[in-house]
Amino acid sequence: MSGYGQMSGTLYERLGGEDAISAVVESFYDRVLDDERIAHYFEETDMSALRAHQTQFLSSVAGGPVEYDGRDLETAHDHLGIDGRDFEIVARHLDDALAEFDVSEDDRKTVVAAVGELRSAVVSAE
């Protein structure tokens, strides 16, 4: 990611801003859609819109000048019946996508932990 390796600035800045986060999101969803254990969750999904929302969401979580205006996470995921195992698979794909772009382990942990805090809103089948 551009300018990566510097530990100053916000996480959003360290990640390289919206364009770099968008590239991570592209890689992330490529990984998710290639994983037959979880790809079925996305069969009826407008992936272009989802990629844009995820970029906005991660930019917001990382402290960027972006406010997430997507649907409430619980409402968006409730009908999918996502279980804890599948949530963890998705989280690992996110971590792997961040690693692909040379995001430091500390920053990857920060992003994955922020997403992990949303587990109860996403997981509806245990």
Automatic annotation (TrEMBL):
<dbReference type="GO" id="GO:0020037">
    <property type="term" value="F:heme binding"/>
</dbReference>
<dbReference type="InterPro" id="IPR012292">
    <property type="entry name" value="Globin/Proto"/>
</dbReference>
<keyword id="KW-0561">Oxygen transport</keyword>
<keyword id="KW-0349">Heme</keyword>
<dbReference type="GO" id="GO:0005344">
    <property type="term" value="F:oxygen carrier activity"/>
</dbReference>
<dbReference type="InterPro" id="IPR009050">
    <property type="entry name" value="Globin-like_sf"/>
</dbReference>
<dbReference type="InterPro" id="IPR016339">
    <property type="entry name" value="Hemoglobin_trunc_I"/>
</dbReference>
<dbReference type="Pfam" id="PF01152">
    <property type="entry name" value="Bac_globin"/>
</dbReference>
<keyword id="KW-0408">Iron</keyword>
<keyword id="KW-0479">Metal-binding</keyword>
<keyword id="KW-0813">Transport</keyword>
<dbReference type="InterPro" id="IPR001486">
    <property type="entry name" value="Hemoglobin_trunc"/>
</dbReference>
<dbReference type="InterPro" id="IPR019795">
    <property type="entry name" value="Globin_bac-like_CS"/>
</dbReference>
<comment type="similarity">
    <text>Belongs to the truncated hemoglobin family. Group I subfamily.</text>
</comment>
<protein>
    <submittedName>
        <fullName>Group 1 truncated hemoglobin</fullName>
    </submittedName>
</protein>
<dbReference type="GO" id="GO:0019825">
    <property type="term" value="F:oxygen binding"/>
</dbReference>
<dbReference type="GO" id="GO:0046872">
    <property type="term" value="F:metal ion binding"/>
</dbReference>
